[in-house]
Design brief:
This is asparagine synthase (glutamine-hydrolyzing). Keywords: Amino-acid biosynthesis, Asparagine biosynthesis, ATP-binding, Glutamine amidotransferase, Nucleotide-binding. One of its GO terms (biological process) is asparagine biosynthetic process. The protein folds into three domains: 225 residues, 4-Layer Sandwich (Glutamine Phosphoribosylpyrophosphate, subunit 1, domain 1); 209 residues, HUPs (Rossmann fold, 3-Layer(aba) Sandwich), CATH 3.40.50; 70 residues, no CATH class. Helices cover 43% and strands 15% of the residues. It has 27 helices and 17 strands. The strands form three sheets. It has a six-stranded antiparallel sheet with strand order 2-3-1-9-8-10, covered by helices on one side.
């Protein structure tokens, strides 16, 4: 696991300057790879190119140093990630006469490319971001994995092309400070995060998952291409019992493939279905006790440590439990929020950081349950298709509008309690008579109308999802398969995977997600939606596959998620800083928000008049980024 950086200058630069720039970019991502670094630099009359990486040594500790070169030195690679099927791919190549000088997965990628070109990228099962410079054709290939577990940003100006694992590296060497992107701003204030290909910066893009960049150095041009995966079969005719057995086998195999490591490995164990299944599978696949790690909260409304203890006892793990309160987080909030390099308001990043920090003191690699909800249909929002169809069939639109107005007072909450009233209010706001309800329900911060109430009209883009809707052909998603595709491209890539990558790598910990396996993803797409959600039973087939391994009804227990009471913290430990962000002079100078409206929104929350947790937290995180990162880069 590493971080990578690179650039192409359309002019001659001396080697010392190239290395100085790479060292500058590398230093900013030291946390991603504290074990060692490596730099490649080369220049001629027409151009200069440099690639660098920081390494966290997990596989091939002795000979896996990067960059790695082809035998004739004409091709070079830097790589961030893990390739779980590299041994199978290596064996195939060796049978075809290919020789290797290391035991690393990085060299396998290089040799695959050397033999088959960029079409070989589809054969990689893993999480990755890498760049390959092929001197033979004077081109650079920069690729990102199927789900987007590993990040890749890029930027092109008149005189250079830059790519990196983190935004901060690119911003550090751009000629001019990038401006704020309207698209990025609007996506953030709808979703609380910014999915690919956008970032908060105009001109800096995020490479979409399952894509690669082909850069022609001679022409100074680039194209973005999709990694063409093998065809997914249509829905298959199979019994539920046979499908259940296959799901069980696929999950066991995936956990085994993702447990390959030359360093100690453990699991995040929250006590929910996904982390419990992963921990169980790992414990049954190794001889010794595994280490499991969980976070508990002194606030009982957020604490589920009893569930993780039960699973730890069941699988006989060495269980590490950390009970925290706001005092454990208040000193880290600044570091956590700013490490994302752009506005990011998923509050579960805070406990994820802490469990990563505690875990990294014991192991270098942790398996997680991430992706289980997206793969198997585990979110309440996945009910929305059925609910919207039923509701709009019986309730006229005019009556619904009356209910919405009434709900403002009847369902109003004043505390950070995401209970039934909050969920019912959110459900009513997401009902859509035009079939676009799913795009509303994934908007965790504001609906389009709510954004227009707080953002200056100069900045507001009302149809911000239109590009994604056309791209995926999902303007009006209807089925669970539709919802899951949106989740994969939007919320998984832009939110969950960003959260886990940045918080874990900030602690130099590698996280692996066995459910994010293309074989499992493809297989679940061949199954009827009713196998995944049966009635109101989410992740039905996954729970049925493993229910005999757990106490009766354990997998049916509700899971509240990895939440923290940030709404309350905004009124207490964060209050002074939040109030500084609504200073009228600052807001008028900033010229992004409608001053009176945003002040009212925040003050209603602070006074307990109305709970505006998601809206105010997203505003707080934006302002924290703006004044501590954006303004300081001027």
């Amino acid at each position: 696991m590493c971080g990578i950086n690179g650039y192409i200058k359309f002019s001659h630069e001396n080697d010392e300057q190239l290395k100085a720039d790479m060292n500058k970019m590398n230093t900013l991502i030291f946390h991603r790879g504290p074990d060692e670094d490596g730099i490649f630099a080369e220049s001629n009359k027409s151009h200069s190119i440099a690639m660098a990486m920081r390494r966290l040594s997990i596989i091939d500790l002795s000979s896996g140093k990067q960059p790695i070169y082809s035998d004739d030195k004409s091709i070079v690679i830097v790589f961030n990630g893990e390739i779980y099927n590299y041994r199978v791919l290596k064996s195939k190549l060796m049978n075809e006469g290919v020789t290797f000088s290391t035991t690393s997965d990085t060299e396998v990628i290089l040799k695959l490319y050397e033999k088959y070109g960029p079409s070989s990228f589809k054969d990689l099962d893993g999480m990755f971001g890498f760049s390959i410079y092929d001197k033979n054709i004077n081109r650079v290939f920069i690729a990102r994995d199927f789900f987007g577990e590993k990040p890749l940003y890029y930027y092109k100006s008149e005189d250079q092309f830059i790519w990196a694992s983190e935004l901060k590296s690119i911003v550090s060497i751009t000629d001019n400070k990038p401006q704020i992107s309207k698209e990025g701003l609007n996506l953030y204030f709808r979703l609380t995060y910014i999915p690919a290909p956008h970032t908060i910066y105009q001109g800096i893009k995020k490479l979409e998952a399952n894509h690669y960049i082909e850069f022609d150095i001679k022409d100074q041009s680039h194209s973005i291409k999709k990694i063409n995966q093998d065809h997914i079969d249509d829905k298959i005719n199979i019994s539920f019992d046979d499908a259940r057995k296959e799901v069980k086998n696929l999950v066991y195999d995936s956990v085994q493939s993702r447990s390959i490591s030359d360093v100690p490995i453990g699991t995040f164990l929250s006590g929910g279905v996904d982390s419990s299944v992963v921990s169980l599978c790992l414990s049954q696949g190794v001889e010794n006790k595994i280490d499991t790690f969980s976070i508990g909260f002194k606030n009982e409304g957020y604490d589920e440590s009893d569930k993780s203890r039960l699973v730890a006892k069941l699988i006989n793990s060495n269980h590490h439990e950390f009970i925290i309160d706001e005092s454990d987080l208040k000193h880290n909030i600044h570091e956590i929020v700013l490490n994302f390099d752009e506005p990011f308001a998923d509050s579960s990043a805070l406990p994820t950081f802490l469990v990563s920090k505690k875990t990294s003191s014991n192991v270098k690699v942790a398996l997680t349950g991430d992706g289980g909800d997206e793969v198997f249909g585990g979110y309440n929002k996945h009910y929305m298709g059925k609910i919207n169809r039923t509701y709009t069939s019986y309730v006229p639109k005019i009556a619904h509008n009356v209910f919405l107005k009434m709900s403002d007072s009847i369902l109003r909450t004043s505390s950070d309690n995401r209970g039934k009233r909050y969920k019912l209010k959110r459900l009513l706001n997401s009902v859509d008579y035009n079939g676009e309800f799913y795009w509303d329900i994934i908007s965790l911060a504001n609906t389009s109308n709510e954004v227009s109430e707080i953002i200056n009209p100069h900045w507001h883009l009302p149809n911000i999802f239109s590009v994604y809707q056309k791209q995926f052909g999902l303007e009006k998603p209807k089925t669970l398969s539709d919802f899951r595709e949106i989740d994969r491209h939007i919320s998984l890539e832009g939110d969950l995977l960003v959260k886990v990558d940045r918080t874990s790598m900030l602690n130099s910990l590698e996280c692996r997600a066995p459910f994010l396996n293309k074989k499992i993803w493809d297989y679940t797409h061949t199954l009827p939606d009713s196998f995944l959600i049966k009635g109101w039973d989410k992740k039905h087939i996954l729970k049925e596959a493993f229910k005999d391994q757990f106490p009766d009804h354990f997998l049916d227990k509700p899971k509240s998620g990895f939440g923290v009471p940030v709404g309350d913290w905004l009124r207490t430990i964060l209050k002074d800083e939040l109030e500084s962000f609504i200073d009228r002079k600052k807001l008028n100078k900033q010229h992004i928000f409608k001053t009176d409206d945003i002040i009212k929104l925040v003050k209603n929350h602070l006074s307990n008049t109305k709970d505006n947790t998601f809206k105010v937290w997203s505003f707080y995180c934006f302002q924290k980024w703006y004044y501590n990162t954006y303004v300081t880069n001027e």
